[in-house]
Amino acid sequence: MNASAWSMLLEGAWVTLWISGVSIAIGVVAGLLLALVRLARIPIIDQILVLYISLARATPLVTLTLFIFLSAPNFGIQLDRNLAGILALTINTTAFNAEIWRSAFGNFSREQREAAMSMGMTPWVTFRRIMFPQLMITSLPGLVNEMSFLIKGSPAIAVIGIVDLTRVTNRISAVTYEPLPPILVACALYMAIIGCLVWLQRIAEHRANRLAE
Amino acid sequence: MSETTAVSIRNLSKSFDGVEVLRDVDLVVKKGDVVTILGSSGSGKSTLLRCVNWLEQPDRGTITIAGQRIGVNDAGKPMSMRELAKVRARTGMVFQSFNLWPHLNVLHNVTEAPIHVLGKARSEAEAHAHELLEKVGMSHKTAAYPNTLSGGQKQRVAIARALAMRPEVMLFDEPTSALDPELVGEVLAVIKALSAEGYTMVIVTHEMTFARAVSDQVVFLDKGRIIESADPETFFTRPSTERVQKFLERNEG
Ligand SMILES: Nc1ncnc2c1ncn2[C@@H]1O[C@H](COP(=O)(O)OP(=O)(O)OP(=O)(O)O)[C@@H](O)[C@H]1O
Ligand SMILES: [Mg+2]
Questions:
Q1: Cβ distance A144 to A200 under 8 Å?
Q2: So what's the pLDDT on residue A212?
Q3: What CATH number does the domain containing B60 carry?
Q4: Atom of ligand 1 nearest to the CA of B221
Q5: Residue B146: its chain A contacts at CB < 8 A?
Q6: Based on the structure, what is the number of domains in chain B?
Q7: CA distance A88 to A91
Q8: I need a surface site. Which of A12, A27, A33, A141 has the fewest CB within 10 A?
Q9: Contact yes or no for A129 and B91 at CB 8 A
Q10: Pick from B213, B219, B188, B228: nearest CA to B36
Q11: Where does the chain cross the membrane (chain A) (predicted)?
């Protein structure tokens, strides 16, 4: 592989990284908000959220990406490719994250909540000071797991012409007629990205030990 | 309502799934008094205590804490969460299973509510916490996390945490029932010391010797009713009901 192939690969890796990164960042927070809203069990809104979550979880990423990109003009919106890609990944990962947060809420110790209430904490203070710091740590393994699923699923955005880390290997081999080297490098780069996540997870697990009584 | 009343419970009734667990309970706790609640398992002791700070919502009756009604506001409407939290802040509760917050060290377990509920400055809250941890014999463990403590140590921290709110009344729900026998003494000693300092306390316990030594008043619950209420001398030597006599005989040895 020559220098230009290397620089194309790195560019592809960057595209994968930033598009997934933005989707993950939005998706983690949005998932938390959805889980909180679901906690309130507001009649119609709750059913809408349940519908969204099951649809988003059941739809393949490729299909979702295509659908968003192709249907946007019908609503009079001219979607940038990258934006469409981010939207698709975010819609997908938010649904999974909402379920991860929700199950963490559901499993949170009633005793600890009662202790907080008995000390005069309002539900908001209880959430912010007692529940959230612990939920963050207990949810992190699930969240990181979902992050690596998302990154591994992200080549789906190539379907609308985004040149990500997987797609770029095609482009390189079209010129060099040697498909294997770029794919091997791409694999290594994916592994490096996921490896960083696993490392993050280790740190979280280390801190989680403290929560185990 | 007298100036000297810490807690007043009137006509309290509570059902779970149609089964009446508390029936017309009346109890007045004077400031500085220690009231112990005895009774066999399932008689409603925990429920009574949990009604006082509205962890359980009674069906009927009124509860006031230092003159402040809990659960119903001045307008006669059910209290909002915020109003409820304000009254709860004036009570301290110690649970059978300690219920410390595992992500906070000992010091921060004690300062958390004073800072985030009462709005105290960190320095002030920490000074008070050190004082209280000294009192319960835990000042050498301020930086430790709960999972490194023994049960007796956890419970003493939980007592300091509740005291940090300067509550009008301390509520103890079987504070030593989850402890290994050799750790019971250290917790009871702390509670005894508090009674000597004049704290108002309502204590559910199965420790008869302790109850006799520490109480100003002993109350016996049977199937959700108070069937006996007396000073400890009278209660333990001349109980007026056969039910209490039987209970004492069974719990003697
Ligand atoms: N949340 C609840 N839902 C349904 N029933 C309950 C609930 N809490 C308590 N009960 C029932 O109410 C009755 C009184 O319970 P409570 O816990 O007040 O008894 P207790 O005197 O504290 O008993 P113990 O000595 O075992 O702690 C019991 O029959 C119990 O099963
Ligand atoms: Mg009980």
A1: yes
A2: 66
A3: 3.40.50.300
A4: 21
A5: 213
A6: 1
A7: 5
A8: A33
A9: no
A10: B219
A11: 12-37, 49-71, 180-200
Q: Structural domain of residue B166, as residue ranges?
A: 5-252
Task: Name every chain B residue with its beta carbon within 8 A of the beta carbon of A134.
Answer: 102-103
What 3-state class would DSSP assign to B102?
coil
Nearest to B244 by CA among B223, B224, B227: B227
Give the range of the structural domain holding residue A65, as residue numbers without chain letter.
3-212
Beta-strand ranges (E) seen in chain A are none
Q: Return the CATH number at A199.
A: 1.10.3720.10
**Cβ of residue A206 closer than 8 Å to a chain B Cβ:** no
Which residues fall within 8 angstroms of residue A127, CB to CB, at 6 or more apart?
none
Q: CA angle, B184 as apex, B178 and B189 as ends, to 5°?
A: 135
Residue B7 CB partners (closer than 8 Å, separation 6+)? B27, B28, B29, B52, B63, B64, B65, B66, B168, B169, B200, B202
**What is the distance between the terminal CA atoms of chain A, rounded to a whole angstrom?**
54
Q: Is A112 on the interface with B (CB under 8 A)?
A: yes
- Ligand nearest to the Cα of B48, by number: 1
Compute the count of residue pairs across chains A and B with CB atoms less than 8 Å apart.
80
Spacing of C-alpha A42 from chain mean position: 26
pLDDT in tens, B5-58: 999 999 999 999 999 999 999 999 999 999 999 999 999 999 999 999 999 999
Ranges of residues in chain B whose predicted pLDDT is under 70:
1-2, 253
Report percent pLDDT > 90 for chain B: 96
Record the pTM: 0.90
Beta bridge partners of B63: B9
